[in-house]
Amino acid sequence: MQVLQVIFSGVAQGCIYGLIALGFVLIYKATETVTFAQGELMMLGAFAGLGCVTYLGWPFGVAVVVSMLVMACMGWLIERVVINPVLGEPAFAIVMLTIGVGYVARGLVTMIPNIGTETHNLPVPYADISFQWGSLVLGATQLVVMASTAVLCGLLYLMFKYSRVGIAMQATSQNQLAAYYMGIPVKRLNSLVWALAAVVATIAGLLLAPITFVHANMGFIGLKAFPAAVVGGFGSLPGAIVGGILIGVVESLSGFWLPEGFKDVAAYVVVLLMLVFKPNGLFGDNLRKKV
Amino acid sequence: MRFIFKTSYQQDIQLARHGGHVFWYGLLLWGLVTAPWWLQEYWLTQLIFVMIYSIMGLGLMLLAGFTGLFSIGNAAFMGVGAYVAAVLSAHGTPFPLTLALAAGLSALVGAVVGLPALRVKGIFLGIATLSFGFIVEEGLARWESVTGGNAGIHVKAMVLGSWKVDSAASFYAVCLGVTVLSTLFVLNVLRSSTGRAFVAIRDSEVSAQSMGIHLAYYKTLSFMLSAALAGVGGALYAHKMQFISPEQFGILQSIDLLLMVVIGGLGSVHGAFLGALFLITLPQFITLGKDYLPAVIGQAPGLQSLVYGLVLIAFVMFEPMGLYGRWLKIRTWFELFPFYRKGMFKRQKSFQKSDRLK
Questions:
Q1: CB-CB: which of B131, B258, B355 is closest to A272?
Q2: Most buried residue among A5, A140, A252, B269 by CB atoms closer than 10 A?
């Protein structure tokens, strides 16, 4: 029974990884840019929510919506100002650029007097509720994480499948040049994708806040989302979530069974094995260039 | 303007192309050799750090700048070198042997990391090396019987035969020697067929393969050389710091190393040195500038990270060739005076090339 409990919390943690990985994958699919700033976007989102709830005193629901909107603008702005001018440069340059964006975000947050260097608790309405199911204790925070992830995935699925914007994004991700010839405003879509990724990151941040705390270095969890994205196959949206959950479960099980220390590296061991034996991931598509 | 008349093929691979090179690099070397006599001890220490970082930068430059494989885990190799030096010097092993073993073991670790490089490219390789870096860091922290775990380990002073290297000046001399040797080594690798193969792989894997370059061999070799140099740098670093702990070799150190080669200028040996100079002097400048800024900004703990980020963004956006690229432009301006045109180094506009098709 204890194992089930461990798996349960692993799945909840994995959903967070999956949500951050979703941001990577969205951006990668659309612009073939790998961003190292996704964790920092999540951190900014959590701080935006914290600012709305604690310092402006708004109700939680309003705060969630407002911080999502603010972060969408932020994502849009980052794409416009720094990413767009260097598209077409080697991927490596853009990776360095996003590392720079992450540094700037972390530096700016730390510079806010009295707030940036502290660890905060985000007061959520569902913080202390838990349910008893058999001998399992299901915390509301974790249930909310899972439910929101499921809803968000459903919404994204519907958007990509049926909406005009979603289909245009799919086209752009398959072939930028061809999409451009078909009259799709590729540049505007790229900005939109960044905004969307920032919104997803904000949701992840707000969901993670009650489990850990809100602080300037919480973005480093983003580095654990890379394994999630790779395990799922870097270009696949459902893959990101499945990969995240897989990583989360492996991590908490290795914390349960294996000696201390394995918990922190379990995700990386999994991703190394994946890269050596199945580089395309679980759901990745294997495209080959034909001459 | 200088015209070089080629009279033999040997000229193409000479280390010093013309008299100017001989004169200026000779002057630089002379200045460095005599540095302990005219430089304060504080600045001598900074110079030592510049040298240590430039050795590691040379390694990463070989890998990222010349072979086009980019690694977010080079601090792990540095850590291996540092711990080898720490453990061996505790047993009284002479320094040359320590250095050789540090380089050798790091190279072995590098060969292991090179394995995924044979199958994955680009960003996936970055993630593989990142993961490896985390695993090595955790391994160093957990293997307490040898490494002392998170509590860290003290490193004894360097011993060279009967000469105990404990003053700043003598340590500086050792560092200078190792740096010059490493630089010559890298330069010689680059002008040999091995170096040409690296550059070919960077420019196009498909065409390199069609020219008969064995990708697996050269990629692994590149990883090994890079790791060996990082290990050498790590060993010197351990002796300099006299105290090492696993978190000094984590992801932030790896990113610092990357930042260094990108700001210095990818694909140039000069870049490694300029980048190291930049990385070491920037915190000094920030400390100096702090007093002139309003207290809210100047005393904030995030200032350094903010400046690093902004500088990195500015370089990638406006000067992708880094500091060395800026120097090239200035030099060309003088060489061609007054015929320098604005667009001479203009980047070609290009569409995003897809990585997804292999």
A1: B131
A2: A252
Is the minimum CB–CB distance between A103 and chain B shorter than 8 Å? yes
CATH of the domain at A91: 1.10.3470
For residue A105, the chain B residues in CB contact (below 8 A) are: 309
Task: Count the alpha carbons within 13 Å of A163 in the hemisphere toward its beta carbon.
Answer: 9
Q: 3-class DSSP state for residue B212?
A: coil
Chain A interface disruption, residue of B121, B134, B209, B255, most A CBs within 10 A: B134
A287 located within any domain: no
Nearest to A91 among B123, B304, B309 (CB): B123
- B239-260 CB burial, b ≥16 within 10 A, e <16: bbbeebbbebbbbebbbbbbbb
Q: Which domain holds residue B226?
A: 41-345
Q: Is residue A283 part of a domain?
A: no
User: Using a CB-CB distance cutoff of 8 angstroms, which residues of chain B are in contact with residue A95?
Assistant: 70, 123, 126
Range of the domain at A195: 2-277
Tokens of B55: 């050795």
Question: Is B24 part of any domain?
Answer: no
Q: Would A45 be classed as within a structural domain?
A: yes
Q: What is the pTM of this model?
A: 0.89
Instruction: Work out the angle between the directed axes of helices B74-90 and B251-264 (0-180°, nearest 10).
Output: 120
**Does residue A285 lie in a domain region?**
no
B189, pLDDT greater than 90? yes
Which of A:131-170 have CB within 8 Å of B? none
Counting the structural domains of chain B, the total is 1
CA separation for the pair A243, A278 (Å, rounded): 14
Residue B25, domain member (yes or no): no
Total domains present in chain A: 1
pLDDT of residue B238: 92
Confidence of residue B358 (pLDDT cuts 50, 70, 90): very low
**Nearest chain B Cα distance for residue A23, angstroms:** 16
